[in-house]
Amino acid sequence: MKCIEIKGRAKINLSLDVLKRREDGYHEVKMIMQQIDLYDEIALKIIGNGIILNSNCEYIPNHEGNIAYKAAMLMMDHFHIEQGVEIYINKNIPVAAGLAGGSTDAAAVMMGMNELFNLQATKKELMELGVLLGADVPFCILGGTALAEGIGERLTPIKGFDEWIVLCKPNISVSTANVYGNLEVEQISNHPKTEVMIQALENKDIKLIAENLENVLETVTEKIHPIIKDIKKKMLEYQALGSLMSGSGPTVFGIYKDYNKAKCAYENLSKVYNQVYLVKTYDECQ
Q1: Residues with catalytic annotation?
Q2: Buried b (16+ CB within 10 A) or exposed e, 80-98
């Protein structure tokens, strides 16, 4: 039986701005997302019928409660696939971490099924379909680095950068819905300088990139979990060029130009926290 394997990569937010709350309950955002080389490994195999989903991670559901399962259902319905698919997710990205771990698994399932069943759908078609599952799914299909607008589905590819990233996820869970729900958009005083960040990326000015890291959701999540501020402080003590919370949290990342400094930060943080990672930024064009 034909089987394929595909990587679903995590993302970090170099900037995250919320412009307004829309009438449909979603928030209008403007943010820059960057893929990193931390990934889940997804294996897909054609079976007679139905969907079977298994994982090495006991925390994720193996039914319709899993966004990757929903992605398989969506693909089967949309493309009228009569056979079934078996999915195995080897989870390396921490769960509920602000790194788009679920969204990237869904994106990987969609891209994998496109290849597995020879559907010949374009990346654009998959992205348009993926937004039905979640706002981050189109970016995870696109990959690389991008400016995201609207609810996150309007994407403009931009140049990424090639540096070391240290990630640290404290042992807490954060509800994205609660964070957005507690955000008072009109009270935001420091908005990210998105255009400055784009220019810094274009020029590969790592110092300017690090200086302009900004996430308006930090103000909400840090109030509930002060540990986020503590980890950011530690990243800077360990000589990160800049540090920021990714997404709605709780993962904090630091940017390092020097591998030895990054490794030192990774080792020191690993003494205190269980989920610490040393990776590089990722762009297929690099």
Answers
A1: 11, 136
A2: ebeeebbbbbbbbbbebbb
